[in-house]
Amino acid sequence: MGIRRGNCNRCPAANGGNRGLGLDSGGGRAILCPVTAPITALRPRAMLLTVDTVSKTYPGGRPVLRGASITLDRGQSLALTGESGSGKSTLLNLTGALDGFDSGEITLDGVALSQLDDAGRAALRRDRVALVFQQFNLIPALSVAQNLAFQARLAGRLDRGWIDEITARLGLTELTGRYPEQLSGGQQQRVAIGRAMAGRPKLLLADEPTGNLDETAAGTVLDLMLELVRDSGTALLLVTHSQAIAARLDRRAHLTGGRVAA
Ligand SMILES: Nc1ncnc2c1ncn2[C@@H]1O[C@H](COP(=O)(O)OP(=O)(O)OP(=O)(O)O)[C@@H](O)[C@H]1O
């Protein structure tokens, strides 16, 4: 970047100037203030996602998000917790460009979501984001192998070697010819995770991914998902009610009153 980092002699945030920009104490050269600069400016390579003071009210409803902010580095995992109705799924959907927000900004992999039209949002979802929900959402007419390949093709990154690796790591090798209705819930969710990862997404959004599974299956699925995500360098934003699950991730953030308390 053109502007270097250092100690500024006056805090522009305090003086009503541009947040994060300051002057060095010597010659008045522009620098990034290490105190007030947005983290994105200081660590541009590591940062994947910034949700910056985002607000959202559904038509006819009360505000759900009132200036919610989170950040996520590449390859990092973050658990989003909060009371029922606090807006966790809403925040996840906004992050995945599934819905629009009223104010603030979401930046994903350098792309400001507020600037995208419908086609741009669709492209972002296809190329960089993958979703796993509590409902497995597999395509019933496609076999396990076809479900995985479908997603990879959609993302424009069909790599048979990678799909074979995912299949093996998720313990699905014996099941590749089966159809979703021939699988248990835990098996279906493993396929859903495999499908999500098949296109090598930058960000995996998971909404209560083990919520429909019994404890044993949930534990297995979570272990496999975290291992696969970690080794792939994919960042994970996971909504959960479970403190035990939240504790397994790198960081956690709690949503309350429409804001995030990290
Ligand atoms: N499409 C929608 N239209 C109108 N209101 C909605 C819509 N989706 C969610 N809401 C409302 O927004 C609020 C937050 O919902 P959201 O699903 O984001 O919460 P949550 O924290 O994920 O809840 P839970 O833990 O129960 O799944 C709720 O009051 C909900 O009724």
TrEMBL record:
Keywords (A to Z) from UniProt:
ATP-binding, Nucleotide-binding, Transport
In terms of PROSITE patterns, this protein maps to: ABC_TRANSPORTER_1 (PS00211), ABC_TRANSPORTER_2 (PS50893)
The segment(s) forming the ABC transporter domain are 49-262
InterPro entries per record: AAA+_ATPase, ABC_transporter-like_ATP-bd, ABC_transporter-like_CS, ABC_transpr_LolD-like, MacB-like_ATP-bd, P-loop_NTPase
The answer to whether UniProt assigns keyword Nucleotide-binding to this entry is yes
Q: Output the Gene Ontology cellular-component terms.
A: plasma membrane
Name the domain of life. Answer: Bacteria
Q: Name one GO molecular function term.
A: ATP binding
Q: Does the keyword Nucleotide-binding apply?
A: yes
Gene3D superfamilies associated with the record: P-loop containing nucleotide triphosphate hydrolases (3.40.50.300)
Q: Which Pfam families match?
A: ABC_tran
Spell out the protein name for this chain: ABC transporter, ATP-binding protein
Q: Which organism is it from?
A: Ruegeria pomeroyi (strain ATCC 700808 / DSM 15171 / DSS-3)
